[in-house]
Amino acid sequence: MSLARTNLKRRSSRSSSLGKTLFLIAAMALAVAACSRLPVYSHYEHIDGESWRRDDTLTFTTTVRDSANYHLILGLRATNAYPYKQLTVNVDVKVNENEELSPLTIDITDAEGEMQGSGNTIYSYDVPIGDVVLGSNDTLTVSIHHAMSKFSLPGITDIGLTVAQ
Fold first, then answer.
1. How many C-beta atoms surround the C-beta of residue 100 within 10 A?
2. Which of 59, 77, 63, 85 is nearest to 124 (CA)?
3. Distances (CA, A) of 19 to 12, 30, 33, 40
4. pTM metric for this prediction
5. CATH architecture designation of domain 38-164
């Protein structure tokens, strides 16, 4: 009789360990799914010519269908021709008639001058701009221009915007 109880206890502890493991796996999967954001808009503009000029303002406009909190991400593509460690841009976020301008500084290289983006010859950077609450059918307009002291910046090939829910 005690042998049967021991086997029963072993099975119970195994099944409770299995249950805990399955619960942890399910909880982790839910956490990962909750953290990933679905893009509702993503677009890049190519920088024409040899460099990005300060007066070249890139504007992105979209209208959202659902009322929600949206995450804005600036996309940047650059080559080794970019001569500075950082890039400062002004980001103008306009929702309907409300507008907010904020500077954003992006680390392009590390202290040794190595490009920090992903890629081999063209390096990509995804930089969080911030979150914005949008209502159903709100229009979002984001304008971006560089705020560096030099008028023309070589090596910047594309600027983009991703809006994720």
1. 11
2. 77
3. 10, 16, 21, 37
4. 0.76
5. Sandwich (2.60)
Radius of gyration (Cα) for the chain, nearest Å? 24
Distances (CA, A) of 134 to 36, 45, 46, 73, 127: 19, 23, 27, 15, 20
**Integer Cα distance of 76 and 53 in angstroms:** 15
CA 35 to chain centre: 12
% of the chain residues with pLDDT over 70? 78
Q: Is the pLDDT of residue 157 over 90?
A: yes
**Which pLDDT tens digit goes with each residue over 70-89?**
999 999 999 999 999 999 99
Per the listing, tokens 């190519």 go with 46
- In angstroms, rounded to a whole number, what is the distance separating the alpha carbons of residues 163 and 61? 10
| The one-letter amino acid at 98 | N
Q: What is the pLDDT of residues 117-141, one digit of tens each?
A: 999 999 999 999 999 999 999 999 9
In DSSP terms, which residues pair with 115 in a beta bridge?
109
In the chain, domain spans: 1-36, 38-164
